[in-house]
């Protein structure tokens, strides 16, 4: 194989790679990155949980408990239940 032919084949290969990148990879790049971040976050959560570190979101959700209890109260009234849950939980 001559050096000129090798250079020409290298240029053709680069063009094919550019077309492939444009048509296939670029279209899905954002979705692939989002999926990669989701998997990395899930892995970190599992790793932290296995090491005994509490989930940081659990502290944030404590602020929502009063609102959730109010919604639960409305829900069980709509379903026709007079009382719901243990004593002191809802009604």
TrEMBL record:
It comes from the Bacteria. It holds the Pfam family DUF7990. NCBIfam families: CC_star_Cory. This is DNA helicase. It comes from Thermobifida cellulosilytica TB100.
């Amino acid at each position: 194989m001559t050096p000129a032919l090798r250079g020409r084949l290298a240029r053709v290969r680069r063009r094919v790679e550019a077309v492939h990148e444009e048509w296939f990879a670029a279209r899905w790049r954002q979705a692939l990155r989002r999926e990669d971040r989701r998997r990395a976050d899930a892995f970190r959560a599992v790793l932290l949980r296995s090491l005994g570190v509490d989930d940081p979101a659990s502290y944030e959700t404590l602020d929502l408990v009063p609102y959730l209890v109010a919604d639960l109260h409305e829900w069980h009234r709509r379903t026709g239940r007079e009382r719901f849950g243990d004593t002191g939980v809802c009604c």
